[in-house]
Each structure stands twice: as C-alpha cells, then as structure tokens.
Design goal:
heterodimer, A: five-stranded antiparallel beta sheet, 23% strand, elongated, B: 173 residues, mainly alpha, 69% helix, 0% strand
Chain lengths: 591, 173
C-alpha cells in the first residue's frame, strides 16, 4: 500500500476517534451539568400520570328496561398556564360563551406558571357538549389565524383545555324520584346516594374508585387497570304505571287541597312494588333544591319514611284476626248501641250514632268503631296483639328503600299501654304505621294469607350478568280461607255501600279510612288522614292499592276523597297490566 | 523409509509457505493493519447489527406502548360516549316525550271498556326486560396484554427451557 493511502487511513481513524471522544465528553457533560438535576425532576413530573380509576355509576332501569337513572358526558374547563398566550382572549371567550366573569377568568389566565406548583386552574365544570363544540370551533379558528399564538395582537385560546367526565342524570326528571333518591354528582370526590335506591344500593351502584400511577414511558409498558362499572339495577317499578299514578295523585292532592299524598301499587303475589307515588317530588337533576322542597321535618318518601295513624283501614286487620281466630263469622250478629265502654272509656262511632242490628259485613260497611272494639274485646288483648305482630305491625318491612320508619306497637305490659288501647287500636287509633307497612299487612288478605316482603329491586346486573331477586315470604298471619272470606266481605260492603271505589267491570275489595289527626293532644275533627286500601280482581287479586291523602280540605272523609282515587288508579292499571274485565277474563279462562 | 521422507517434504513445504507469508508481511506491513482493521470492522458491523435489532425492537415496544395508551384513552372516551348516548336515548324516549309524541300522532289513552282482549295460545304476556350487559365493558380478563409484550428476553428463555424440559422429562405430576 502506498504511504499516502496509509496516511489517509490514519487521518480518518484519528478523526473518527476524536468524533467519538467528543460524543463521549458531551454525554458526560450532559449527565453532570447543572441542568441535569432539573431535567431529572422534569422527567419525574411528566414521567407518570396519576389517574383516578372510577367505575361508572350503575344504571337504574324500570321493569321494562326504561332508563330511570344514567350518566351523561360533561366537561371541566381549565387553563394550562404553561401554554397561555393571550389571557384577554380566553377571558373574553369564556365571558361571552359561558357567561363567566371576565375579571375572574382574566386573573386566572394571568396566573404565573410555576412548574410543579401552579400549572392548572379550573374555570368551570359540568359544561355541556354543545357549549364545548362552540368553544372548540372558536379555538380552532383562532389557531388557524394565529398559529401557536405567536402574534400577541391576534386572539388565541392556547392553554384553554377541557376534559370530559360523567355526571349522573335522571332522564325522567321527577318521575319516581321518591323511589330513586338522588346522587350528589356535584361533589366529584365525595358524591353519594341519598334516599331511595340511590342510598340503599349506593355501594352496589358506585363500584370502585382508586388512584393509580401510569408510566408515560412507552418502554415501561404495563396494563392500565380498569374499574368494572357499578352494578345496574332493574326495579320492579313500571314507568308507565308510575307516571299514571303520579298524575292521579297530583290531581287528587290539588282537587282536594290536601297537604300531601301517597299511592302505592303492589303485586300481592310477590311483593313487587309496581308504582309508588308521593308528593312532593324533586327533580334529582337539581337535587340542591332539596331543602326548598322538603323543609325540615318533612319526609322524602312518605310511603316509607313517615308513620301516621291509619284509622279505619286498620279495621281489616282486626276483622282478619277475629275471623281467623274463629271469634266471628261474616254473619255474626251485633247490636250497635252507639257506644261501648272499654277500660273505663266510652268508645263511639264516627257519627256518634247507633246503627242497631248488624252483622260483620255491616260493621265493615259502616265502619263501626263500636263493633270493632267489641270484636277486639272478644279476641282479647293477647290474641289481638299476637295477630298484629304477625301482620308485622310495629316492625319494619325492610323494604329496599332508605330510611324506613317504624312506630313501636304498645302491647299489654308496656307502660304506654292501657286497656282502652285494645279498643282504639282495633279501629286504627293509638297505633301508627307507614303506608308500606300497612300495605304489606293487608296484602296477606289479598294473597291467600301469605304476606310477601315488599321490594323494589327486581334484578341487578353485575359483571355482565343479571341476577334476579327472589320474592320473600314474610309470614302467613291468617289462613287462606280467612283471607278469601274477608276479601269477599269487603267486596260486598263496597257494593252495598255503592262506594266511589267501585270499578266498572272489575270486582274489587277494599276499605276506607278517616283518621282524625291529634293536634295538641286532642283529636281534631276537621283535620284528617283520608285513606283507602283495596285490591282486585277479588277472585284472583293481581294488585293491591294503598291511597293516603294528608289533611284534605274538600272533605275530611276517606270515602269521599280517597275512594275515587283508588277507582281512578285501578282504571289505569288494569289496562297497563293487561287485566281484562272479570266477565271477559272468566270467559277466556273457561275456553 | 518412504513415509518419513514424505513427512519431511511436507514439513519443508509448510515452512516455505510460512516463510513466504512472513516475508510478504515484512515486505508489506500494511497487510497486517488491514487485517486488524478488517477484524475491527467485523466487530463493528456485529455491534451495529445488534444495535439495529435493539433499536428496532425498542421502537416497536415504544410504538406498542403508545398505541396501548392511546387505545386506553379511546376506550374511556367510547365508554363516556356510550353512557351519553344511552342518556340521550332515554331523554328522547322518556315517558313525557313518548306521550307527547303519541298524542301528536293522534293516539288517545284507552279506557278499560274499550279494550279488546284476545287469547293467543303460547303467548306468555309482556315479559320483564332482560338486559344482557352492564353499562360499560364487563370483560375482566387477568391479562389483556400479550405475554410477548410483558416478558423479558430472560423470561422468554427460561419459560422456553422450562416448557422444553417439561415436555422431555415430564412435569413430575
């Protein structure tokens, strides 16, 4: 090889070696430079993302799959201070589009960026997608006119960002809100369910929530954990029926100038609550109105959260006990003299009249306090209260709705119990129940003596599987024969009375109740709780309906204000439940 | 005696060849340097090849990692969109809206005495809704990422050796 070639080789080798050395020196210099520490910190800050993994809150459906509670997408708008180019443009845009205070936004957008400390400021939250669309279009337009926001004289929305998240929503607004409860979605960290199924099944609906660190280094690949959604609930509620019943209740409360009202429709065969209407109702989408709609002391769901003296509807339980114990039969005669003395106290009828010769059907038809007091004395306190215990009076039904109330039942031996209680309790005074408690007790009469646990959860969906709940038998307080006998007696009494509760084409059984309300320790004759309990069709009951109007002013009588409400409800629900009129049904059955 | 003579001749020829090579290298010392440079270059090529493979695999891993991250964000986005769509459908088909639309279309509420009931053999009546799936994906497999993306070269090697030894020796169970 020529010497010149060798020299070239040497020169090249030296050059490459020098180049490699320069690279090596530069590497060492970078590693040990004063900026290295800052770069390390910067990388540490941006190397990981702390993400909150939160389950989507479970849905709530009615029995037919109509969504009663779901989630919708909303946005949080904030400023990433590091990228802000034109604070005035951001303030102006937010002021115009979202009606925000210009000064507040301008000040926020002008906040100095301090790495690791002040990097992001939240401007607004729960912004709808339609508004974000407008904002996005404007941001793109500004960016096209002023790329990277480099021209300070042109508007730029750089730094303005929005991130989506979910918000609880109730598409039916006030419908069944007393059953659903509400979720405090404005509290993104500590939101919780209140009242109804939202509270009762809060843990099930909520699923899981945890904070995790995700490496943003693509080399450190890892599985990003997911949170399975919260369980979804399918309720026994029928949306159409609920709507119809709420309409009827609202009209009844308004027409009778009642303080409030409550209607429950249940299937006595399995305890499924088909409709539970109450007034007042709140739109859970605006749950913060709670204190305005439910002032202190008022109940969110009167059907479950409020006890009251039921009055004469309670007589069905007394009569059921007496028939079951064999103390009376439907035709047992009773001479009503208009007064009976029990425990030293005189008991009178509702009209202070004497109704003369009656049988047990007449006693129920005319709702005679004297007769029922006599029946209770014939039963005796032990058997009477034993039956009330069996009917679940004084105990919670354990319905799956939050905040169920109960009023303890005074029994012989209690300091609050006197002999006269036996008489007054027999016609529903001196005893207090929640509507659901009484409905459950009475449902045993409509279901051949079998008392089913009332419930609103039909099934729940978890991990992609749907689990059906099983109807629970609470007890069998009376025999099937007693139940059928009493049902027939109550149907006859309604028919003989030509009650407003009668429904054309359908034979129904029921009982009115008018309970005077105690005011300052004295029963008031012009303030009452008007109630009605009824079920049908008599030969094969498919529904039981409870009606309660609190302090009606058009009339104080349950037979005048509550019985027609029952009829209106039945007229609606027989269509919705596909129950043909009795003659049609029986002819179809016989075919 | 013929065989030792042949060996001697061969040894002589070998020595001559060696001498010629030594002489050649002495006469042109750049040959040795070229040989060294060649060796160095071969080493360099091997290093470059390994580096290329490493870079290629790293690039793919990084790309897969970014894709996984992007897909996860997409999944979250889709879950929100599904929830939002469900809510919008529910609003559109709410009881109040459906009733209003029905009335607009000329439907009227039926009275019980207007209804015509027919017996349809085998028809069980209106059944409660069975909702097949939860609001978001309920699939909860222990590992979504393929093992090839999770295990190191050593993991892969040891797993392979273990499975090979199991197949040859048997798992012992």
């Amino acid at each position: 090889m020529k010497k010149t070639n060798f020299t070239r080789f040497k020169f090249l080798a030296v050059l490459l070696t020098l180049f490699a050395l320069v690279i090596f020196v530069q590497m060492v210099r970078i590693q040990n430079s004063t900026d290295a520490e800052y770069l390390d910190k910067w990388a540490a800050n941006y190397g990981y993302e702390i993400r909150t993994i939160q389950s989507e809150r479970g849905y709530i459906y009615d029995r037919w799959g109509n969504l009663l509670a779901g989630n919708k997408e909303v946005y949080e708008i904030g400023i990433e201070l590091q990228f802000v180019k034109n604070p005035a443009a951001i303030a102006s845009t937010m002021s115009n589009l979202l009606d925000m205070d210009y000064g507040f936004v301008f000040k926020a957008a002008n906040t100095p960026y301090v790495p690791g400390q002040t990097v992001y400021i939240t401007l607004a939250d729960y912004i709808l997608y339609s508004q974000i669309e407008e904002l996005s279009a404007l941001k793109t337009k500004y960016e096209n006119n002023n790329p990277y926001g480099e021209d300070p004289n042109k508007p730029s929305l750089r730094g303005l960002v929005w991130t989506p998240h979910l918000q609880r929503t109730y598409p039916e607004h006030t419908l069944a809100s007393n059953v659903l409860g509400f979720y405090t979605f404005y509290d993104r960290e500590g939101g919780a369910g209140y009242y109804g199924v939202e509270e009762k099944y809060d843990a099930l609906l909520a699923g899981t929530k945890k904070n995790i660190m995700i490496s943003l280094d693509p080399y450190e690949m890892q599985e990003i954990p997911t949170a399975p959604p919260g369980a979804s609930l399918v309720l026994t509620i029928d949306r159409e029926m609920q709507r119809s019943v709420e309409k009827i209740l609202d009209q009844a409360v308004a027409a009778n100038k009642a303080n409030s009202g409550s209607i429950i429709v249940m299937n006595p065969e399995n305890g499924e609550i088909l409709a539970m209407a109450n007034t007042p109702r709140i739109d859970p989408n605006a749950y913060w109105e709670y204190e305005n709609i439910f002032p202190a002391g008022s109940s969110y769901n009167k059907s479950v959260n409020q006890v009251y003296e039921p009055g004469s509807i309670f007589k069905v339980l007394t009569m059921a006990a007496a028939l079951d114990a064999g103390v009376v039969t439907p035709l047992t005669p009773f001479t009503d003299l208009g007064v009976i003395n029990v425990g030293g106290w005189d008991i009178y009828n509702w009209d202070r009249g004497a109704w003369g010769e009656q049988n047990m059907i007449g006693c129920m038809q005319h709702s005679l306090n004297v007769c029922l007091s006599w029946i209770a004395t014939q039963l005796g306190p032990d058997r009477f209260y034993d039956y009330l215990e069996r009917f679940g009076i004084g105990h919670r039904t354990n319905i799956d709705l939050a905040g169920e109330e109960v009023y303890p039942l005074s029994v012989p031996g209690d300091p609050t119990w006197y002999t006269v209680n036996l008489a007054t309790n027999s016609f529903g005074q001196g005893v207090a129940v929640t509507p659901i408690q009484f409905l459950m007790a009475a449902s045993s009469i409509a279901n051949d003596g079998m008392m089913m646990a009332p419930h609103v959860l039909k099934s729940y969906i978890q991990d992609g599987k749907q689990y059906d709940t099983t109807p629970q038998v609470v007890g069998k307080p009376i025999s099937a024969e007693t139940a059928r006998t009493l049902t027939d007696m109550l149907a006859i009494s309604l028919e003989q009375e030509a009650s407003d509760a009668l429904v054309e084409g359908y034979r129904v059984a029921g009982k009115t109740g008018t309970a005077e309300i105690a005011v300052n320790g004295q029963y008031s004759s012009n303030q009452t709780n008007a109630s009605f309990i009824g079920w049908g069709p008599v030969d094969d009951p498919k529904f039981i309906v409870f009606v309660w109007l609190e302090k009606p002013r058009s009339s104080i009588w349950g037979s005048i204000v509550a019985a027609p409400v029952f009829r209106d409800v039945v007229n609606e629900i027989v269509v919705l439940m596909d129950i043909p009129p009795d003659d049609v049904r029986l002819s179809m059955t016989s075919e | 005696m013929a065989e030792p003579q042949e060996n001697k001749t061969r040894r002589k020829e070998k020595a001559v060849k060696k001498n010629r090579l030594v002489q050649a290298f002495k006469q042109a010392p750049w040959r040795g340097r070229v040989q060294m440079a060649g060796g160095f270059l071969v080493g360099l090529v091997i290093i470059i090849l390994i580096a290329s493979v490493y870079l290629s695999i790293s690039g793919q891993a990084a790309s897969a990692g970014l894709e996984a991250y992007r897909l996860d964000l997409k999944r979250l986005d889709l879950e929100r969109q599904i929830a939002n769509t469900n809510a919008r459908i529910a609003i559109v088909s709410s009881a109040a809206n459906m009733e209003a639309r029905a009335l607009e279309l000329g439907f009227q509420r039926i009275n019980p005495d207007e209804a015509l009931y027919l017996t349809i053999p085998g028809y069980p009546g209106k059944q409660s809704m069975t909702i097949a799936s939860a609001p978001a994906s309920a699939k909860n497999e222990p590992y979504l990422v393929k093992s090839v993306y999770r295990e190191s070269l050593w993991d892969w090697l040891f797993t392979g050796i273990n499975s090979l030894s199991d197949s040859v020796i048997g798992s012992g169970e």
